[in-house]
Design goal:
The complex is a heterodimer of chains A (about 675) and B (about 100). In chain A, helix 1 runs antiparallel to helix 4. In chain A, strands 1-2 form a two-stranded antiparallel ribbon. The longest helix of chain A is centred in the C-terminal third of the chain and has 49 residues. Chain A contains 27 helices and 2 strands. By secondary structure, chain A is mainly alpha-helical. Chain B is elongated, with a radius of gyration of 17 Å. Chain B has a single domain, classed as Helix Hairpins (Orthogonal Bundle), CATH 1.10.287. Classes of the chains: A mainly alpha (about 675), B mainly alpha (about 100). The interface between A and B is medium-sized, with 10 and 14 residues.
Amino acid sequence: MTPNLHLWLIPLLPLAGAAINGFLGKRSSRQAVSTVALVFSGAAFAMALWVVSQFSSLTLPYIETLAPWIRAGAFQVDFAFYLDQLSLIMLLVVTGVGFLIHIYSVGYMWEEGGFYRFFTYLNLFMFFMLTLILASNYLLMFIGWEGVGLASYLLIGFYFLRDSAASAGKKAFIVNRIGDFGFLIALFLLIKHFGSLNYAELAHVISPLHIETHAGLFTAIGILLMVGAAGKSAQIPLYVWLPDAMEGPTPVSALIHAATMVTAGVYMVSRSHVIFDRAPSAMTVVAIIGTLTAFFAATIGITQTDIKKVLAYSTVSQLGYMFLGCGVGAFSAGIFHLMTHAFFKGLLFLAAGSVIHAVGGEQDMRKMGGLRTKIPWTFWTMTAGTFAIAGIPPLAGFFSKDEILWQASRVSLIYWGVGVFTAFLTSFYMFRQWFITFFGEYRGEAHDSHEHGGHGHDSHGDDHGHGHGGVHESPALMLGPLVVLAILSVVGGWVGIGNRFENFLAPVFHSTATISADSFDAPAVSTESTSPESLSPASKSEESGKNTELLFTAISVGAGVLGFLLAWQLYYRRPELPTEIAAKLGGFYYTVLNKYYVDEIYAAVIVKPLIAFSSAVLWQGIDRGIIDATLDGSAEGAREVSDSMRHMQSGNIRSYAGWVAAGAACIIVFMAWMAVGTR
Amino acid sequence: MVPLSYYLILSGILFACGVTGFLIKRNLITIFMSIELMLNGVNLSFVAFAAQWHALSGQIFVFFVMVVAAAEAAVGLAIIIAVYRTRETLNVDQINLLKL
């Protein structure tokens, strides 16, 4: 007996919170606004937990249809929610981490202007994100997809008075639109060829079809979906918006641009695994994009000095890992990393926010240092996050990253090699940040000379009640979520021990296993270990595989430790060394420091020609020259004619009489002429 | 018997006189009388045709025109008096409040 879950309540609760705060928040006190925001996001989390408690009695996938939406012939789309193991995990991550970050935000944003606006947007984001996750078809997912983009735009541009924040918001939105374009085309292709957008129906239609040996329909759909995912999840070539998105308040960076929204692409690709399973070329594209992004972003992360920028590039890099996992067919490993990443990256961002808060708005790591003893809670939680992301066992990041690398190594050693090297880089830049921020001497300004007042980074120039008192630990409201996330970052990976996580997700990706077992060898092999039936015949090779796996694990852990040691050497023992190395590397260092000039290249190759074309042809040529000219011309013509006709209406009665007489004369002439004609 | 064309020519002359007076005169009363002249020109052609074709409808029409003209004269003269009282002139060139 399947109980009624009322899934619709989960997204609608945050929407109700957003509505209440949006309409009434301006006149309410901060206490009231934060209570509303916390109650409604907390209620969503409670609902999610309740769903978990009912989970064992469900027949999966559980589909809840609310109302018909589009019915056009055979094509139909409903407002319907879809729950299976995959959406359950996403649900827990989004509501759980989201709720924690809501709590944190109350402390973080307390002194800021626009308090109610912030929580309205944050709840709105939760609504759209939950819609995205729970949707039972691609169209509803697309609504959530666009909605989180909107919320992201609003929150990046939260300090809209600052020009850089406003343009960062626009950049994020526009770059995302490029990705959405690919996503939409993929949806059109699905409608055209399969006549449906429902996950269940699509799986039913597509499952019997064979794997494409040459690039074909599935490859096209897969690559287009990947374009959409690359936009949302900040992959090459569309990653450029994410580092700029750090203009938003730090809790936003944690929630939207690290833990949840940017992982929507990974979720979407995993959700479309039926399509990707049948398009090995598309899978390769996904894997290559993921690998390249992971590596590329990690190298940029090394040179950044802004504490949030380091984390931003780290996020891009970790998302690359997730796509690598998906690209080699290890969807569950990708989702696993998504979950652990949500914990430790959410934690790292919140801790970074706490650091920024502590030093009065400074974001430049070079002006920090020695904060270990001054803000011990932040230090210890951030330490947990740093060790987790660096892949040091037994913390969360180790399990998920190792799983991805192991699965990747079974497809190609190149993926594995780049992945391990990236793991080394990750470990290096994270410990670099850790050492610079928390060790050595405090390099900031003297404590009592904060002329920029409070959170300079977030500052409206508002009066801040605090922040002038030197380095200080954050309030308990901010530390609580940090501690919870730190615990999750430590233990969160343990659910993956013994492939439990994979086995849990196996029913979702089940078709993967069967397909890959009978016909195809390259990608998708990975999930073999998930399905028990494929374990027994291959147990012998599994045995030797175990040893290889252990070796590979040792290597990736070694890479993490090596990164730690290098950072320790460079930034703790001999802090003068990095400058020398940078000087030796010269041009290369500056290239990396300037993010490989990707923004500049995009500006020169795409943006400038586009602006030139738009202003010369579209604006001056078509808009001004044709559309405006036509309208202006006809208006001018009408005005000219009216102007000449106006003189008839002189107000002179005798001239009216003259016109009447002339008109009568005309009629008489006409009649006479007619009479002559008929005779 | 006087031929029809004579009546029609006379009628046309009367009507043309009316139109001319209507167009060139400045005094409101003269203009008003020119209109009456035009009406009577038309009336003459009505009765001429009625006599020619032995049809009563033309003569009946003339009665209608006369009734309307009488009513119009009453209203028109009242307006003229009202205009004179307010403007103290009957020169149409100066009665131009509606002019642009």
